[in-house]
């Protein structure tokens, strides 16, 4: 079962760890993603969950990667109920491997473009900020965004490992951030600890539930766990919402759709399909008349 856990240290650091294997696999199946699209979307979904660190204030986070690569836009929403959804414009993209077994996510996303992050909370006005894409590999791009746009020193590691049959083997990541009272040598200790861990996908392959990962990252620190919840893929779309969208169409469009036996609408975010009969559309026309 996928999860996200958050920790703070007496030395002024905050750590979030997420395992998102099932969540990414759900997205892969829903959107029929090819491997490099799975990796790009999975990394972005995991990053969004890690960045939505203000759950106590009901924060939602949206990330849009607008790169110049063949995937087009990568769009992800992470919600305060520990759910996430997302899509890529072009799910059937294939690019040459960087090396044996290493997907070139940067080439698929594009190495030029923009990262856009929007934070939504009930307590303050929505906040949107941008930064330039650095590598297209997602983790470096989001870490640069946090440093430049939100002035938060961060270490971000994201990974998705895909089987040759396209199945998601492991997915997850972690985010380390400096709190205002961070001590001078805390990041030096973190850097030394991270050298013993290696790539996150390799770690999760042998520790699929991120066993001992917090202890390895925060070795030598005084740690308190402050948050632990399950996460999963979920989209808040519904048939009623799409019916309301149809109701808002101009009269001529509704008349045209009412000629068809079935009108099918598809949610971009989750690929769920909703069907509306000719009678449904005629009902909307009658409501307009009245």
CATH topology of the largest domain: Hsp33 domain
Mean pLDDT: 91
CATH-assigned homologous superfamily of the largest domain: Hsp33 domain
Integer tally of domains = 2
Distance between the termini: 50 Å
Helix count from the secondary structure assignment: 10
C-alpha-based Rg, rounded = 21 Å
Instruction: Give the strand tally.
Output: 13
Please bin the fraction of helical residues.
25-40%
Strand proportion: 25-35%
| SS-based class | alpha+beta
Polypeptide structure, described:
The chain is of the alpha+beta class. The chain has two domains: 3-233, Hsp33 domain (3-Layer(bab) Sandwich), CATH 3.55.30; 239-289, CBS domain Like (Alpha-Beta Complex). It has helices at residues 21-31, 35-51, 105-109, 139-149, 186-194, 200-206, 213-217, 239-247, 251-257, 278-289; strands at residues 3-9, 13-19, 60-67, 73-78, 83-88, 113-120, 127-132, 154-162, 168-178, 223-230, 232-233, 262-266, 273-277. The strands form three sheets. A six-stranded mixed β-sheet has the order 7-6-3-4-5-11, with helices on one face. A hairpin with a 6-residue loop joins β12 (262-266) and β13 (273-277).
Quick tags:
290 residues; alpha+beta; Hsp33 domain; 6-stranded mixed beta sheet; 10 helices
């Amino acid at each position: 079962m996928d999860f996200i856990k958050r920790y703070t240290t007496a030395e002024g650091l905050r750590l979030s760890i997420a395992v998102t294997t099932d969540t990414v696999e759900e997205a892969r199946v829903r959107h029929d993603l090819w491997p490099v699209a799975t990796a790009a979307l999975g990394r972005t979904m995991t990053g969004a969950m890690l960045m939505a660190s203000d759950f106590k204030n009901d924060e939602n986070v949206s990330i849009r990667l607008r790169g110049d690569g063949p995937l087009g836009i990568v769009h992800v929403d992470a919600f305060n109920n520990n759910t996430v959804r997302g899509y890529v414009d072009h799910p059937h993209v294939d690019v040459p491997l960087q090396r044996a077994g290493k997907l070139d996510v940067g080439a698929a996303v594009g190495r030029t473009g923009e990262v856009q992050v929007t934070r939504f909370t009930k307590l303050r006005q929505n906040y949107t900020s941008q930064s330039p894409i650095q590598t297209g590999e997602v983790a470096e791009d989001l870490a640069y965004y946090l440093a430049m746009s939100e002035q938060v020193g961060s270490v971000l590691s994201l990974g998705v490992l895909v089987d040759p049959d396209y199945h998601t083997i492991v997915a997850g990541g972690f985010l380390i951030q400096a709190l205002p009272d961070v001590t001078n040598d805390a990041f030096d200790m973190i850097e030394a600890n991270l050298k013993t861990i290696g790539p996150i996908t390799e770690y999760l392959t042998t520790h699929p539930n991120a066993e001992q990962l917090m202890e390895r990252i925060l070795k030598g620190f005084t740690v308190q766990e402050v948050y632990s919840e399950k996460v999963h893929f979920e989209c808040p779309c519904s048939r009623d919402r799409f019916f309301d969208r149809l109701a808002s169409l101009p009269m001529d469009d509704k008349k045209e759709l009412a000629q068809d036996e079935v009108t099918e609408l598809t949610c971009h975010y989750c690929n769920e399909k909703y069907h509306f009969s000719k009678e449904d559309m005629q009902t909307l026309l009658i409501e307009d008349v009245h």
